[in-house]
Amino acid sequence: MKEVVLKVRPREKRGKEYAKKLRKNGFIPAVVYGPETPSVPLEIETHSFSALLRGGLAENILITLTMGDQKDGGRKVLIREIQRDPVKGNVLHVDFHEISLTKKLTIQVPIHLVGTPEGVKDGGILQHVLRELEIECLPTAIPEKIEVDVGNLKIGDSIHVADVKLEKVEILSDPQSSIVTVVPPTVFKEAEVAPAVTEEEPEVITEKKEGEEEEEGKKEEKKEKEAKADKRSTEEGKEEKKKEPK
């Protein structure tokens, strides 16, 4: 496990105003505490702590805090919590947890995938399900990250917690939990579009007024009289022709 040395100094005062003054002068307020020691307020240089964070794995780094010309080798700690400004992201406060190098502890360690699965090359999709493992070990055996090789995975293959083997470390996470799997590519079927239905315009039936009905009745009666008159004229004409001498 990676180990670094961080110089700190006791913090003389507490309170928001003093903390603001510290940050303005290039320091970060902090505190160190442990199961067998009382908490001690500290000040750490912003530049030094920012350099430690650049690695991206500060929470799993064993840190030795030293004060001035300390002769006892310093205090072995892990970072328990980092408080940041919600807008700017600047570090506002740091909690250090003092540990014993001879006692095991439980910690979450990030999983780092290595390689490109064969199934992904064939069109499959890699799903990273579990991103951390809970482990128990001595502080000196804590890995910064747990590497999982996924290069041989084909479509349908998975890697479970039980498949991970670590030396000097006991894995506490559920052995049956899936860490990563390669699933078949998703196929999107075109939605069937139903043919457009043309609605026929309904026949509009208008209600006739009483005067209009009467007028139409007169017209029909007139047409019937004219038809009868034409019929009589035709018949009279035929009779006249019969009476003409041949």
What this model shows, in words?
- It is built from four helices and 13 strands.
- It has helices at 16-24, 46-53, 118-121, 210-243; strands spanning 3-10, 27-33, 40-45, 62-67, 75-84, 91-98, 105-114, 125-128, 132-137, 146-149, 158-160, 170-171, 178-183.
- A hairpin with a 6-residue loop joins strand 2 and strand 3 (40-45).
- The protein folds into two domains: 3-99, Ribosomal Protein L25, Chain P, CATH 2.40.240; 106-183, RNA Polymerase Alpha Subunit, Chain A, domain 2 (Beta Complex), CATH 2.170.120.
- By secondary structure, the chain is α+β, with helices and mostly antiparallel strands.
- The strands form three sheets. It has a six-stranded mixed β-barrel with strand order 1-3-2-6-5-4. Strands 10-7-9-12 form a four-stranded mixed β-sheet, with no helix packed on it. Strands 8-13-11 form a three-stranded antiparallel β-sheet, with no helix packed on it.
Q: What is the total number of structural domains?
A: 2
**Main sheet makeup:** 6 strands, mixed, barrel
Task: Enumerate the spans where pLDDT stays under 50 for 5 or more consecutive residues.
Answer: none
Q: Please estimate the helix content.
A: 10-25%
CATH architecture of the largest domain: Beta Barrel
Placed side by side, the strands forming the largest sheet appear as 1-3-2-6-5-4
